[in-house]
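Narrative of activities, Objective 1.

The group set out to show that a structural description can be obtained from nothing but a protein's sequence at a throughput compatible with the screening campaign. Below is one input-output pair from the validation batch, recorded exactly as produced.
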Amino acid sequence: MLDMEDCDEDASISMTWSIDPSGTMRHKQTGIKISEESGIAIGGHEYLLKPSDIEMAENGVLGSGACGVVMRGTIKKSGQLVAIKTVKVDEKGKREQLLNEIQALVSVEGCQNLVQWYAGFVNKKTNCVHVVLEFMDRGSLADLKKRVVQCGSVVPPPQLAEISRQIMTGLDHLHDRHLLHRDIKPENILHNNLGEVKLTDFGIAKDLDTTLAVAGTFVGTVTYMSPERALGEDYSLASDIWSVGMVLYELASGVYPFKEFTTFPALFENLIDKPEPRLEVAYPNHFPPELCDFVARCLTRDLKYRPEAKRLLLEKFVVPGASACSPCSQAELVVFFQQVDASCGR
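Output recorded for this entry:
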């Protein structure tokens, strides 16, 4: 049985939420209901799982953060491996973040390049909510980068092209639904043994339909944020594109694009004043022009010239067979992952 005793037992309930004696949480505006026995109900659909349906893995912690922990487990009936994300809802901000995440997870159901979910439920002892997610067995792209660097290598262009294609496919799905991710970084892009690459962690995703298509809050990981966000300006879907460019530059070269970024002023100078990161400048004649051009298009300060995800999916770099360094197959990506593991003794 899931029983996260490290969560606060008393939840302060805002005017938008209520908790009844059984521990069931209800969001008054949207009608979302989260209970221990009935899972999550939203928009007329029920996502049914309860604590007794999950068997937790011994020493199964996958990660932790401000909202709680992510643990590995199994759905007993099906034997399906899952990741269980615990969200503390003791503060209004955390409850709103949970609401955003659930709504985003529902809206992206069926997209193969966005992490999917099964259900969720509340623990009435602690008022923590557990969200049951698809388990990605190879971890994040931060883990992949660490392994390839450990092997004295980087991600080769054809494999990076396939990773890029899958990231952009997931991002295009989000953007088509006017969802801005706002926290794209290597840790929030996962991969698995099937060669699938998926964006995750929609807890701070923003629905731009309700914000006149721009956002103005300063959230997300600062080292991957776009120049317009660092300036405190309004930002939109294009800010996610910059973040992807930062990730791809790092996977291609093995190093973060800015050499000096230990303080925010130094990061700000790189983002605003210094030339945009360019692979062909830092590593002359080292990378295929299609890769350099793709990353450069993402890392363009002028929003007029920073393409949408849909447009980037038409670039030669990510179209299979369009160039010498176009995407490898998904099967070849699996082989690459396995070769990295073997080289690192994993």
